[in-house]
Amino acid sequence: MKRTGPLALVFHTLVTIFMLAPLAIVCLVAFTPENTLSIPWGLSADAYSLRWFKAAFEHSDLMQSFWNSLGVAFFAATVSVALAIPAGIAIARHEFPGRQALNGLLLSPLIVPHLVLGVAMLRLFALLGARGSSLWLTLAHVVIVTPYALRLVVAALSGLDRSAEQAALSLGASHATVFRRITLPLMLPGITGGWMLAFINSFDEVTMSIFITSPQTVTLPVRMYMIATESIDPMMAAVSALIVAATAIAMIVLDRLYGLDKILVGQH
Amino acid sequence: MSFLTLEGVSKYYGDFGALVDMNLAVERGEFISLLGPSGCGKTTTLQAIAGLIAVTRGRITLDGRELTRLPVNQRGLGIVFQSYALFPHMTVAENVSFGLEMRRMPKHERDTAIQQMLKLVHLDGHAARYPRELSGGQRQRVAIARALVISPPVLLLDEPLSNLDAKLREEMQFELRRIQRKVGTTTIMVTHDQAEALSISDRVVVMEAGRATQIDAPHRLYEHPKSRFISSFVGKTNLLPGRVVRAAARSAVELAHGQQLDVDPGDFADGANVTVCLRPEKLFFTDAIDGALAGRVEERFFLGSQWLYRVLTPLGELEVSCPNDGSSPVEEHADVHLAWANDVARLVEASA
Amino acid sequence: MKIAGRGVPFALSAPALALFALMVLLPLAMTTLLSFQQYDQERGVQSGFTLASYALVLGDSYYYEIFFRTGWVAALTTLLCVLIGAPEAYILSRMGRPWRSIFLLVILAPLLVSVVVRAFGWSLLLGPNGLVNQLFEAIGIGRLKMLYTPTAVIVALVHVMLPFMVIPVWTSLQKLDPMVESAALSLNASPWTVMRRIVLPQITPGLLSGSLIVFGLSASALAIPGLLGGRRLKMVATLIYDEYLHELNWPLGATIALALLVINLAIMLSYNAVLEGSYAKRMGRS
User: Fold this and answer.
1) For residue C2, pLDDT beyond 60
2) Residue A266 — pLDDT band, cuts 50, 70, 90?
3) Does residue A38 sit within a domain?
4) Which CATH number fits domain B4-228: 3.40.50.2000, 3.40.50.300, 3.20.10.10, 3.30.70.20?
5) CATH code, C191
6) How open is the CA angle A68-A72-A75, to the nearest 5 degrees?
7) Is C285 a residue whose pLDDT tops 60?
8) Residue ranges per domain, chain B?
9) Domain limits at C209?
10) Mean pLDDT score of chain B, rounded to an integer?
11) Is the pLDDT of residue B227 over 80?
12) CB spacing of A182 vs B77 below 8 angstroms
């Protein structure tokens, strides 16, 4: 570390603890053998228990909502990337009237509160009778996560060396071949990163989903919210710990692929 | 009928003429350089020939075939980009193979061609490497190999040596020439480095503000520059303003302070304002004989193979260069006399 | 590189545009319409134009109180994020190679964990028997009521929003040329002066941008006030939740939601105006 005074280091340590504390506590409480929320203590093996993990896996509503979330996130990420690639090409590479407006519209879910989107879509779903439909829920999630996919696709395209494409053309390649063999492979890390970021954001989404899920389509975060507002027991902690672990793995994969700091900070 | 011709080729961006009325006839197997400062239109010319930009006016023909409206992927020319533009996700061999794959060459033929080409550019051990693992000079050779392996009728080089450091640049100049001579491909190179252009080209096209100002073999270009700009851009020169004085017996140029120089006025009329160009290496130190120019050495610079002197004379400050032939150099502040051979002074137009 | 005709970009963006028109523009328009519709306790939403919901929201002090509470909670959260996030971003930018990436990840990674999990974690920490109270007791402060008060909501909001402040400030800091700071120091400026007159002016857009994001997100937060604020501590988001899903007074809910959206947009636009104005003139477009 260069030139960081002791005061700054203390401050930094406190901030780090602050950021990790709720995640750490949740992982600890998950292992408690007690019936109530408590932190397991001691060095012997029976101070820790997996009973709450077992309870979580046996909770049918919880498991159902987990599969719901997984399915919705998978399809939402895939569809959003499928939309983001052509739209990203149009925005990054073409000058056309309405380009700024289109870019703004596709990024708008970042500015429009998910709360407002949830309420607005609820109205639409009610009129369409779409409330219990996984399809419409997935489409709603597509909208929410497209900004993440789009930003990464546009960044990947902007960072591409155009002269490589020109070189391919000069060697006799058709435009389709250039896209297939040069552009797309070079965009791939960005596309994959975008997919994963979209997946994670869809999986985590709660505010909008609260409004538009129905008892059949409830997603995991919404289910957890409902459970947490009624009764709190260590099972919530176990589920949370699993989510933290899964996220940590996803982060490592994302980092290997693309560089996590680049994805989270973005190329401004 | 030359191999590659440009007739009246112009490229306008709105009112701005990046390239104006370019006429060029290139023979088969020639090595041509497009030389000039930034913004002179040399890169625009290359891009027009390549098909990377569309021309506003004019025609481009290759071996009788009209190229002007053809898209870049149907012209079949070999291009080496300034940044090399290698495919980062492919190995050296795959990069070189790409153009051959587009021509549907069967695999075993491709492999042989790639092998031979890599050998020609001295990269035969590196076929499986990726561009990021190579040095700048190696990447450049991959770019050349990739462009040459398709046996293009014309090879286009966009400032191929500008990204290399000085020593490497010198080596690569001669490498380029060697490869070109061996393969015999008609080559057009864009550069802003006059030494580079002069050393390896058969002919040089000097460009300024979108136009070609002189097209000549390097030696002729250097010895007989047609304009003030060319004489100072190509090599170093001393420029002296003067006026033509034609008389029946003898013509001369009268310089600023009334000195008379015996110079052939060529096509310049009597009384015309001109500039006299004297190259530093044409001036030499001599004894105080009749006709020699007196002066005093103000500064001297050691350039390894030469000494460069700044000499203050009645004609102004002149640069003189002498080879470092082992004899002792002239001291600073020494009084000297300068002379030059009869026919080495050149006349170009006066400054604007 | 001109490929095909002029229609290409439109064709490429059509699917995304269609989806967004259907799922964003249309529902927002419908919600706007809804806010003008009548609501009857027995019969539900009626057609017909009325400003009753608006009158209620703008007139009744109950709603003012909630908007006000949401406002000051969001403002305080934003302030804390600036005071904690900006120095932290600066400290991070000064760190050496491996540590810098590691700690940047530590600060930013919680973004990838669902807000429900994080809120739940804070409810464990801030409860009457939670770790924080145990710590307070150990050092002599005694137990404090934090859960179900604005304190818990603010603490959790700061935790969730901090990355959103760190990112833009970090980005601004990355654009700084460290040599500029060295140049100022070589001209006899104190480190404090360098901070105040060299660094701070250049990270101001990052601070502004971060503040806007944090304020907007905090004002519309649902899960955190819901889990940590309890039933009595209403904020705009939980209010809308109640109207839509409990009271079923959708027009009223729509009105409140629109009010929230308008406030968000107004703040965004004023930010752009400030940025385009004085700042751009001095620093040039970045």
Assistant:
1) no
2) low
3) no
4) 3.40.50.300
5) 1.10.3720.10
6) 140
7) no
8) 4-228, 236-349
9) 50-113+162-281
10) 90
11) yes
12) no
**By the 8 A CB rule, do B1 and B64 touch?**
yes
Tell me the per-residue pLDDT of C175-211, one tens digit each, with 9 for 90 and over.
888 788 788 888 888 878 887 888 888 888 888 888 9
**Does the residue C120 lie in any domain?**
no
C81 domain-assigned: yes
Residue B95 has a CB neighbour count (10 Å cut-off) of 28
Q: How far apart, in Å, are the Cα atoms of B184 and each of A197, B82, B217, C261? A: 53, 22, 18, 70
Query: Which residues of chain A have a Cβ shorter than 8 Å from any chain B Cβ?
Result: 161, 163-164, 166-175, 177, 182, 185-186
Cβ–Cβ of C31/A210 closer than 8 Å?
no
Half-sphere exposure of B332 (CA within 13 A, CB side): 7
Percentage of chain C modeled with pLDDT above 90: 26
Residue with tokens 């369409």: A128
* Closest C-alpha to C240, from A53, A150, A113: A113
- What is the crossing angle of helices A114-128 and A134-158, to 10°? 140
Separation in Å, CA C171 to CA A159, A265, C167, C285: 17, 7, 6, 15
With an 8 Å Cβ cutoff, is B87 touching chain A? Answer: yes
Distance of residue A66 Cα from the nearest chain B Cα, in angstroms: 38
* Number of domains present in the structure of chain C: 1
- Name chain C contacts of A109, Cβ cutoff 8 Å: 24
Q: What is the mean pLDDT of residues B175-188?
A: 92
Task: Say how far apart CA B174 and CA A1 lie, in whole Å.
Answer: 49
Residue C278 confidence class, pLDDT cut points 50, 70, 90: low
Average pLDDT (A164-183) is 94
Q: Give residue-wise pLDDT tens across range C245-272.
A: 888 888 888 888 998 999 888 887 877 7
Q: State the Cα angle at C253 between C247 and C255, rounded to 5°.
A: 150
Q: Which of B88, B102, B146 sits opposite A186 (nearest CB)?
A: B88
Nearest by CB to A121, which of C27, C103, C258?
Answer: C27
Asked whether residue A102 is assigned to any structural domain, the reply reads yes
Residue C208 in any domain: the answer is: yes
Angle between the N-to-C axes of helices B92-102 and B136-148, in degrees from 0 to 180, rounded to the nearest 10: 20
| C39 has pLDDT over 80 | no
Q: Provide the number of CB pairs (under 8 Å) joining chain A to chain C.
A: 263
Both tokens of A212, joined, read 């538009």
The total number of structural domains that make up chain A: 1
Q: What is the pTM of this model?
A: 0.83
Within 8 A of C82 by CB-CB distance, chain A residues are none
Cβ-defined contact of B150 to A171 (cutoff 8 Å): yes
In CATH, what number does B236-349 get? 2.40.50.140
Q: How far is A140 from chain C (nearest CA, A)?
A: 7
Residue A41 placed within a domain:
no
The answer to whether residue A144 sits within a structural domain is: yes
All partners of chain B with 3 or more CB pairs under 8 angstroms: A
Q: Which residue has the tokens 């700048």?
A: B136
Q: Tell me whether 0.90 is exceeded by the ipTM.
A: no
How many whole angstroms separate alpha carbon C33 and alpha carbon C250?
11
Please, what is the Cα angle at A91 between A87 and A97, to 5 degrees?
110
Length of chain C: 286
